[in-house]
């Protein structure tokens, strides 16, 4: 039985015992690669599937900017000055790393044009100015894999694929062949979780269940054919329009200083860690943004249990729906401001 950190990159393997997806990536050791999750789907050919995966990875990497180019935080400027600056920064970064300079510079420029807030869901409609350029697929694959690893400060990257029951033999073959191409060209680990009776050339690896997997909530729901990933600590999730809208509303408020997005909180030595959407640690205040799935019984019950663990540890938990944030962000901001001001007064007293 192998640990997650010991699973191979640069090849395709089938996992046995991986447990349900998506994976609680935060609980994995730092030596493990950055792991993205997706669900396999029928494809016309390995080439078509590999191309579709590259487009999904491209959108994911754009949304993670500037996590993979940290010094680009705050770069902007009139008349294209920001684009020139971010290209220069990318080239300098590539000169002292494994990145390919021209690709990283082009990727950074496209990411700056697609800053979160203007296009929070890049998959919905890629405008011509942020569509992938003419780099060959091999260059794109390797460059995107390096950017993903850099975004999460991991030594590499892997794609954890949920293989559903009923995938046709042709679909299984296309999936494995596309995975082999990605593994060879990009060095990605392609980890398949599910039945593959039609393909006998893939090694099966027994893997230990990720620690705290059962206790941690999924970071992003998996949609067939879409990649999912955990948020980068300290930033709004690239796939959450509500998180970006709230951050935009808070960014000009002096009283909102001290906030931190997507933090892992440890309520106690024996308690399971909790991922908080937004936290003011000094005020012991957690803000959670709930999408429609939080109304489902299982998620609602899990949310209440999380709230109780946080409250026992001394945190106050404020919950708002995505709809509230997207339709009237200023009202949400006023509620948070009132709570924090009252909290600070009571702390000073």
From TrEMBL:
Region annotation Disordered: where it falls in the sequence: 211-241
InterPro entries: DUF559 (IPR007569)
Hydrolase keyword on record: yes
Keywords, alphabetical: Endonuclease, Hydrolase, Nuclease
UniProt keyword annotation of Transmembrane helix present: no
Domain DUF559, residue spans: 277-340
Top-rank taxon, per record: Bacteria
Stored Pfam families: DUF559 (PF04480)
One of the record's GO molecular function terms: endonuclease activity
UniProt biased composition (Polar residues): 213-224
Protein name per its UniProtKB record: Endonuclease domain-containing protein
Species this chain originates from: Nonomuraea harbinensis
